[in-house]
Amino acid sequence: MHRREGDFANSKYWWRRVGSHPVVTQLVEQAPSVRCHFTDPFAFVDFVERTLGTGTANAELAQRVQQLEWQGLFAWCFERAIGK
Q1: Beta strands of the chain (E only): which ranges?
Q2: Between vectors from CA 34 to CA 30 and to CA 44, what angle results, nearest 5°?
Q3: pTM as predicted
Q4: Which helix or strand (DSSP H or E) is residue 58 part of?
Q5: Who contacts 73 (Cβ-Cβ below 8 Å, separation ≥6)?
């Protein structure tokens, strides 16, 4: 959420707290489907920071990857909520 708000340092703080997470692995696998090479959340925070508000194709790309991220996170939370 902090990354979307433009608080990039705080976003990285929380990624350090999270550590390894299955959604990150999913993004590495799924991001190529939207033509993005996702390597890690810290590099992605930097990418979003560079492109936020530019109206460029890269800014659109960042939004598509963030959508994949949210979908993966909500699915992960849902699965935990129903006991999977």
Answers
A1: none
A2: 75
A3: 0.87
A4: helix 57-81
A5: 23
